[in-house]
Amino acid sequence: MTASAAHGPSAEARRRRLVAAAFLLPALVLLGALVVQPIGYSLYRSFFDRSGDVFVGGDNYREIFADDGIRTALKNTAVWVVLAPATATALGLIFAVLTERVRWGTAFKLLVFMPMAISMLAAGIIFRLVYDHDPGRGVANAVWVGVHDTFAQSSAFPKARPGRDSPLTDAGGGAFVTREPVRAGVPVLLPLVGVAPESLPGGTRTAGTAAAVPGEVTGTVWQDFTRGGGGATNVVDPSEQGFAGMRIEAVRDGRVVDTATARADGTFTLSAKADGALLRLPAMNFREAYGGVQWLGPALVTPAVIGAYVWMWAGFAMVLIGAGLAAVPRELLEAARVDGANEWQVFRRITVPLLAPLLAVVLVTLVINVMKIFDLVFVIAPGAVQDDANVLALQLYRTSFGTDADPGLGSAIAVLLLVLVIPVMLVNIRRLRKEGAR
User: Which of 254, 256, 312, 400 is nearest to 92 (CA)?
Assistant: First the structure.
């Protein structure tokens, strides 16, 4: 072999390496400027104090685990990592499998995937309104209150109370009772005030005067207020409204001996058992209207924000899993059905194991994503509960750029976040290499 032939391949190889390096150089410069240099500077800065002039060693890292706010952020980040990716992946799998055989499956997938086109900021604003505590504004509480009131109707008289010189007095626990025992054949007047006319239940009529009936206790419970002024106190005036549906109890020696419900004009009738008893208007008449759930309160703010995240990212999981599902050999599924397997067995024993590598990739990708979650928490959680909803990325922002900024501690949090993300990234890279080697 000639010398030129011996040296030819090495020269060609060097030329190819130089060409490859020339193409890679811009990417390497950008990688160094945008990734390597910030990471290196953050690591360096994390060993200095707030001003950056005094070397403090590991004090910033020790403070991470001593500060209550940062510990809450760590705990909430752990909750995010456990719940959000698993929920989004499970929903994506369910949606992909269930829509595979229906004709409108493509339209459904489009609707589920559509939130991915919305920015995190816009989604946060949307869900801040969805979770509003006022049922008139917040969709979540409007639905919740509607379901609740279907099974436990709220009172129409939450503000009602006895007026001046009323024959009723406070019985404790939100109930009211007559001052004196009632007598059969003598009509009883139970005046109340404090209910807005527009809040009275439907079907309410002008208050009527109960007739005296021998052997029975009759009476009227009504709104002792005349719109526009006028009228006499503790007297049923012509323009005043009855309290339709008000419950009245006759109580003797601490026991309820008879009950009645007021008619549309507020009148009611009790049997002779009520003779000599006290009349009580129980607290159920004055129960405050159910206001719904404090979705953005300290206890539920983190699950509420996770719900918004799952709404956005379940479509991402569904599309990837759906693509993997389309590649599953149909003959395997049909063979299992021919052998007598039901759909649940086919799903659990064949579909899920075949999709396991893809499910792992989706799950790990979402884990990396949620460890950096910031904008949804920042926008949805009100300022009063932001400490309760805090996560590491948000704590990093607040520590580094807040009113009492501490770049040294913020850099330490950034390094901690990087250290937590790296193992998950390595797992993902290792799995991708295994898939590529097959």
Answer: 312
Assessment of whether the complete model's pTM goes beyond 0.85: no
Strands of the sheet containing 188-192, edge to edge, are 188-192, 217-223, 267-270
Tell me the helix, strand and coil percentages in the chain, rounded to 5. 55, 10, 35
Pairing outcome for strands 255-261 and 217-223: unpaired
pLDDT by residue (tens digit) across 108-121?
Answer: 888 998 998 888 89
How far apart, in whole angstroms, are the C-alpha atoms of residue 352 and residue 345? 10
Task: With CA atoms as reference, report the closest residue to 92 among 406, 361, 299.
Answer: 361
Tell me the β-bridge partners of 161. Answer: 193
CA 244 to chain centroid, in Å, comes to 37
Give me the phi and psi of 251, to 5 degrees please. Answer: -120, 130
**Residue the block writes with tokens 């893809």:** 358
Looking at the chain, which residues constitute the CATH 1.10.3720.10 domain(s)? Answer: 59-146+295-437
Contacts (Cβ under 8 Å, ≥6 apart) of 404: none
Whole-number Å distance between alpha carbons of 144 and 300 = 15
Cβ neighbours of residue 318 closer than 8 Å, sequence gap 6 or more: 91, 92, 93, 95, 96, 109, 112, 113
Give residue for tokens 């159910």: 290
- DSSP 8-state class, residue 285: G
Residue-wise pLDDT for 206-241, tens only, equals 899 999 999 999 999 998 888 766 678 888 888 888
- Please report the DSSP string for 158-198 in residue order: TT-B--TT-SEEEEETTEEEESS---TTS-EEEEEB---GG
Sign of CA dihedral 319, 324, 329, 335: negative
User: What CATH number labels 59-146+295-437?
Assistant: 1.10.3720.10
